[in-house]
Structure formats: structure tokens, C-alpha cells
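A quick aside before the break. I want you to see a complete sequence-to-structure record at least once, exactly as it would be stored in a machine-readable document. Don't worry about memorizing anything.
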Amino acid sequence: QITTLINHKDKPKRSDKTLQAIQRVGQAVNLAVGRFVTVGEAIANENHELKEEMSVACIEARRAGETIAQLTDVASLDHPESDSHITIFTDKTGVVKAARLLLSSVTKVLVLADRIVIKQIITSRNKVLATMEQLEKVSSFQEFVQIFSQFGNEMVEFAHLTGDRQNDLKDEKKKARMAASRAVLEKCTMMLLTASKTCLRHPDCESARINKDGVFHRMRLALEQVIEIVTDSRPNGESEMAPISIYSGIKEFKNKVEGLRENLYFLSKENLSTMLEVILEHTEDFTDSAYTSHEHREHILELSKQAKMELEQLVSVWMQAQNQKTKDLMEDLEVAILKTCQCMNELKREVHSAATSLAADLLKYHTDHMVLKALKITGVEGNLEAVAEYTCKLSEQKEQLVEMCRLLRHVSGTEPLEITCIHAEDTFQVTGPQIISAAETLALHPSSKIAKENLEVFCEAWESQLSDMSLLLREINDVFEGRRGEKRVYLSLPRPGKHNANLKALKPVKLDTEEQAKIAKLGLELHLLTSDVDSETEKWEDQENEIVQHGQGMSSMAYSMYLFTRGEGLLKTTQDLFHQAEIFATEGTKLASALHALSDQVHDDDKPLLLLEAEKLISMCKQLQITVKASAQGKSATFTKVDACILKTRNVMTLLCQLLPLCCKLLRKNKAGNGCLKPAPPWKEDRIRSGTNARTPERRVETFGIKSLENHVTNMTFLESK
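That is the input. The structure line, written in C-alpha cells, reads:
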């Protein structure tokens, strides 16, 4: 909105609509700043050490917002220039200064709030660690129950804080590391409960103590990793060693090779040779593995040999081209570059095939969990000899799965998936011995219900990780085949020619700068309407209501169309816009059906008004669909069609702004006291959340295992009675 104000073009003639739009933007900015500052002031009041800094930043932001509102108060002026009142037209520099002050002060508030959030997470972690130390030393069952109840509450708080933080992380690698650490904490919380209970019931059992110690150690490591991610630091100032995979190595190598087309002198031949050596060294993880098939091993060795030969040929031509840039030599260089890259692609394909086929076979083979079932049965029987036999088999299975994770990491294709592979490897590495110690404890105490429950918990963790591996394998294959990586939004964008056969032959075009300027005002009006619709949908208590969901969907699409008028967003061409408008109209028709359904629930007096509005909506959506399907040849006709689509979308959104409060009012009236409006949540519960918005679905990430943790705490009375 600020950008719109700063970039508006001064024109001698200004219509009333233009003046009203500018005033509405100014007021919207001021209101948004007011809401933002209210949150900042609430945080300041609860955090005295930063209260002064936060208060100053909030005052600056509020002042800047009010200045922008004053300078844009132009709607009532017929001739702003001749009036003594200072406006955006007489003092544009004032708006620029106010905008800079606003952005500066808002940034200060965000940085201070961020420091507070980090401090909250560290404080929460310290509480958890302190309670864990108490749990480790506890000797009586009653005392354990009381302390674990406190521990559960602290873990729930930590889960909320770290979940919000994970949502806010922009770095996908950090987000994946945070998710892995929080997954460990979720699973280990239940393990800690049963392992500690087993130790208390059998205090002299060495295998039970080993089992419990392993859980505590793993939880401490996970807690430490969360703090490393949050504070962006590592203990003792160590720098993080990024895991090197074959995929990332090949990608970097190819980039360097292809860079020779532009510059023959930007790297040395030794540099390129070293990069290939590192890649081929990593392929030894495949060729040395006992689980790689003979066929895959032979192909990888052949391709490795070929890669060396292709690089030798490339270096030879490259050196000649540095001395003498003839046409023939440059053509030879291009051929050498293509052959080297092709060889690396084949090597990448081969290691991918080797890793994924091994993973698919192992996951299929271990899907019946026969070893785990046998351990449970022999443990209950107290058959130590049989337990020892099956623990050996589990150790073999663990080695297979660990090797599988190592090989998959090399071909995962993205850093987050690499981290997920490393996390899976650690999980199998740690959980295997824990299952063995739990099984040995049960075999020594076959009648112990708690020892049996403890083994069940560790076996479930193993089964859960195997299940996760199937999903991970699917994601890795999706990346390899190019099915992943597209931005996922609330509504999938239509592809040219997919939904409308009449549009297949049209050439997709973009709006030029002049056309964007012409349509900017209409786009701004559309933007303001999407804000109004979002504001109305947020007032509904039942966010799953069909009317709300259709409204959010339409707002999301309208916002995409607004971004298109600015040359931004995911709608890149006029073709994309027309497809989006067609789906928008379809969504509007679905909303009309939902309104008809609602009319059956409301009182007879209200029904005619609702049906009338529904018919209006259907008529507008049909008009939009007709406009979308009309053919447009040539630049001028295409722009006219774009303008008409945006205009008709704006009209539908205007009607939607009237419909949503009407429906909410009718539902409230009909439900006799069960209001559909929800109060604004206090900042502490909401943790400075961004509002529910159809445009940002990716921010809806649930915090880990909070429900299960709360259930553990709730059930402690039952535990105490036992």
C-alpha cells in the first residue's frame, strides 16, 4: 500500500474515485499500523527490560502512520493545490519521509519482538532441562508422577514456542533441522515416561538404566539443536559442516563446466579435477556397499571412468582455447562441455536408481515388522536365548536401514530432504539399541506390565520411522522427476490449454508498463476489496463454513489478479489471468449454491433477500465467464479483455463484501445466542501470528505432539493410582 502511494503518478485531472482510493489507502495504512503498534505495546508492557526501546519504536510508527493518513486526506478537496491543507499532492516528500520512518520503526519493533521470542524459547528450554535433571534423580514413584506432570506442561509450552518459530523461519534448511529436532522431542517424551517408569519399577536392572539414559541423552541433544537454530550459533564457535552429497557435488561441477562458455579463465583445471575427485570418492559409498546390486555397481564404476576421460578431453580443448580462440576450437569446447555434462547426468541417474531401488526393496521387506513381533513374544516368555537371537537380526536390519539412509542422502536433491535423511539415519541408529535394551529388560522381568509397555513404545517409534521413510522416498522421487518444487498456493494455478480448449492456440502475453499503469487504479480497488473480504471472513467463528471457505478462495484469486496488474505474483501472462478469472467465476457459482442452502435454514422473512443476492452473484459470475471465453486477437483487444475481467471481478468482490456480513448476521440471528463472531485473541495466545489468510496457507503448521503431550499430563492421575 505504501509503494502504491509513493509510486502514484501526478496528473492534472483527478477523479473523485482516484481521490477516494488514495484516502482509503492512507487510512488502511494508518489502521494497520495502529493494530501492529497495539501488539508491540502489549509486548513492551510484559517485557520490562526492552519496554523503553519498544515504546519509542511504537510511538515513531504510530506517528508515521498518522502523518500518512493526514497527507492522504484528499477525498473532500476539489482543488487540493489551492487549499492551505498540505496533502500528498502538495508535499510528496512528506509521504516519502513518513514511509521511511514507518518502515524503520516497524523494523525496530520486529527485531525487538524477535529478541523477546528467542529469550522465551531459551527460558523455556532451561525450564525443561532443569525438570529433566529432577526426573533423572527421582527415586519414588509418587515424586516422579508430580515432576513428570510439571515436565509435560513445560514441554507443551516449548512445543508452542518452537512451532511458531519454525513457521517463521525463512531458511528451508533451518526449518527442516527444526522439524527434525522437534520430532525427536515429541517421540522421546513418551519414551522418557515409560523408560523412567520401568527403571523405577526395576531399579537394579542394568538394561533398564541403559534404556532410560539413552532417552535423556537424545532429548538433551535435540534441545541443544533447537537453541542452535534459534540463536544461529554453534557451541565453541564451531562452523556448521554442510553434508556433501553426490547430487549437490554434480550440480556445482556442472555449473562450473558450463561457466566455461562465458569465461575461459575463471577457474583452474586443478579446481575442476578436484571437484570431480570428490564426487567420485562419494560414489564409493555405493560401490563399497554390500547392499548395492552387482549391476548398479558395474554401471557406476563404468560411468566414473568415463567421467574422468571426458574431463581430460575437456581440459585439453579448454587449454587450447585459452591460447587460441578459433571457431573450430570453440565448437570442440562446446561438444566437450555437452559430453561431460551428459556423463554426469547419467551418473546421477544411476546412483539415484541404485539408492531408491534399494530403499523400495528394504521397506517392502521390513513392512511386516516380524523381528519386532518376535521380540515382544519372546520377551514376554522370558526366553533370553531367543531374545538374543532376534536382537542380532534387529541389529542387521538397523545396519541395512542406516546404509539406505546414507545412500538416499546422496540423491535427495534438496537440502531439507538431505537433513530429513540424516535425521532418519540417526533415528534408526539410536532406536535400534534402545529396542534391544527394552527387550532384554522384558525378558528379565517377563511379568512386568510396564516393561512390556516400554518395549511397545520403542517398537512403535521404529515402525513410525519406517512409515516416514516411505513418504521420504516418494518425495525424493518427485524431486528427481521434477514434480516437486513448484510453489503450492491455496488454489492450484491453471495451466494454459488445460481448462479451455478455445484458448489453446492463443499466444500468452504479458502487460507492458503502459498497460500496467492504465489498469493500476482498477487493481488497487481490487486489492482494497480483498482486504475487506479477508477482514469479514476473519470475523466468522466457524472457519470451516462453506461460505467462508468460498469467500477466502475468491479473495485469494482476486489478490493474485491484483498482483498481475502490478506485474508481480504467480500469474505471469494474460492467459494465466483469464484462466484464473474463469476459476474465480466457478468459485462464485459454488458460493451462490451455498447461499441457496443457507436460505433453507433462515427465517422466511430473510429468505427473499438472501435469494436475491444469490441470483445477483450467479448473474455476475456468468457475465465474467462470457468475458473470459470471448476471443481477443491483437494487443489492444487483449488489453480490453483484461480490463473487462478485472472490472467484473471487482464487481463480484464488491457484492461479496456485502454478502459476508449479511450471512453472518442471519446465521447469528438463526442460532439464537450462538454467535458466529469471535473475539480477537490476546497476543500471548496468538504469538504475533499473521492473520488467517487464504493467500498464506503454508503458515498453517501444527505444533508437534501438543495433543499427545497434554493427554500424557491429563492421564497422570491414572498413572499415580497404578
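Two observations worth writing down. The domain at 513-671 is CATH 1.20.120.230 (Four Helix Bundle (Hemerythrin (Met), subunit A)). Residues 78-83, 485-507, 673-708, 712-722 have pLDDT under 50 and may be disordered. We'll return to this after the break.
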